[in-house]
UniProtKB/TrEMBL annotation:
The lineage of its organism: Bacteria, Pseudomonadati, Bacteroidota, Flavobacteriia, Flavobacteriales. It comes from the Bacteria. This is Glycosyl transferase family 2.
Length: 289
C-alpha cells in the first residue's frame, strides 16, 4: 500500500500537476491543512474555494482526504512546527509506504517508483523491525525566465519515502537505515514571482536559518545574462548548489515533460533486508518468544 501526504499552505496552487503524476498509482492521498489557516510563522493564508473544487474534480476515485489540525504553535520555531506537522501527518497516514511531498514537488514517472516499492512490500508489515527511508535527488527550479527555467541538478539527496512513522528533522530520520534509490523529484522551489518568493521566505521552515532578505536580493538580480557565472550559492551549505542549468519551457508542465524525456527514472536496487531473510528473521523472533 502506497500513501502520499502533502503539506498544504500558501503555495497550494502548485499541487495539481504533482497529484496528477501519482494519482493512478497510490492507495490514498492526505492533504494536511492548518485548521486556523496559519503558516508556521503564524501568518494567515487564504485558500481559494477553487482549490477544493479542483481537488474534487481530480479525485475521481475517492482517494483524497483532507486532514485539518492545529499545526502552528506560537511557542516553537517554524522548523519545529514543520517537524511536528510532518510527524502528525505520518501518524494520520498509518502503515504502508509513506511518501511525503510538498505541494511544489513533482515525482515524475511514478509507475517505476510503484514497481520499486512493490518489490519490498514485506518491509511494511512490521516496520519497527526493519525501518528504512528512501532518498531521492532534487532537481530544484530556481528562477523562471521569459523563455525557460534556471535549475540546479547535482544529485542533492533528500528522504521522502519511509515505512517508519517518525521524523527527526523535516523528513529526515538518520536513526534508521537510509537508502539512496536515485528517484528524481522536480522541486518548484524558487521559480516563482517576486511576491511569492517574498512571502515564502517570511513563512517557511528556514525563516530563521540565514539572511533571507540578502538571498532574495541575489535571486532578484539573477537572469539569463549572468547565471553561468554563479557558483556555490546555496544559502545554508554553498556547495550543495554548485551551478545552474537552463531548459527552455513555457510552464512547469512542459518542463516536467522535457526533463523526464531527457532523464528517465533509473532507480537503484535496495540491498538491504531481502524477503526471505526478513521472513526467516521474523520466524526466529516468533519462535524465541
Amino acid at each position: 500500500m502506497i500513501k502520499v501526504g502533502y503539506l498544504v499552505s500558501y503555495d497550494y496552487e502548485w499541487i495539481y500537476p504533482s497529484i496528477e503524476l501519482l494519482y493512478p498509482y497510490v492507495s490514498k492521498i492526505y492533504l494536511a491543512i492548518d485548521q486556523d489557516y496559519l503558516t508556521w510563522s503564524g501568518n494567515p493564508i487564504a485558500i481559494n474555494k477553487d482549490f477544493f473544487d479542483k481537488i474534487k474534480t481530480l479525485d475521481n476515485k475517492d482517494k483524497i482526504e483532507f486532514y485539518y489540525d492545529r499545526f502552528y504553535v506560537p511557542t516553537i520555531s517554524p522548523m519545529e512546527c514543520e517537524i511536528r506537522e510532518r510527524n502528525k501527518l505520518l501518524q494520520k497516514m498509518g502503515k504502508g509506504w509513506l511518501i511525503q511531498l510538498d505541494a511544489d514537488e513533482y515525482l515524475y514517472d511514478f509507475k517505476k517508483v510503484k514497481q520499486f516499492l512493490g518489490k519490498y512490500w514485506y518491509l511494511t508489515l512490521f516496520p519497527k523491525l526493519t525501518p528504512v527511508a528512501f532518498r531521492g535527488a532534487l532537481v530544484t527550479l530556481f528562477k523562471k525566465t521569459e523563455t525557460g527555467y534556471l535549475y540546479i541538478d547535482n544529485n542533492e539527496r533528500f528522504p521522502f519515502i519511509t515505512n517508519y512513522p517518525k521524523y527527526i528533522s523535516a523528513r529526515r530520520n538518520n536513526e534508521i537505515k537510509n537508502h539512496f534509490f536515485n528517484a528524481k523529484v522536480i522541486h518548484q522551489s524558487w521559480a516563482r514571482t517576486e511576491d511569492e518568493i517574498a512571502f515564502k521566505i517570511k513563512n517557511w521552515g528556514h525563516r530563521d536559518d540565514f539572511d533571507t532578505q540578502k538571498f532574495y536580493d541575489f535571486w532578484k538580480n539573477l537572469d539569463a545574462s549572468n547565471y553561468k557565472q554563479i557558483q556555490n550559492f546555496h544559502p545554508l551549505v554553498p556547495h550543495v548548489w554548485d551551478k545552474l542549468y537552463f531548459l527552455e519551457a513555457q510552464n512547469i508542465e512542459e518542463f516536467i515533460k522535457k526533463y523526464a524525456d531527457l532523464h528517465p527514472q533509473k532507480l537503484i536496487r535496495f540491498q538491504g533486508v531481502n524477503k526471505w531473510g526478513f521472513l526467516k528473521s521474523l520466524f526466529s523472533k516468533i519462535v524465541k518468544n
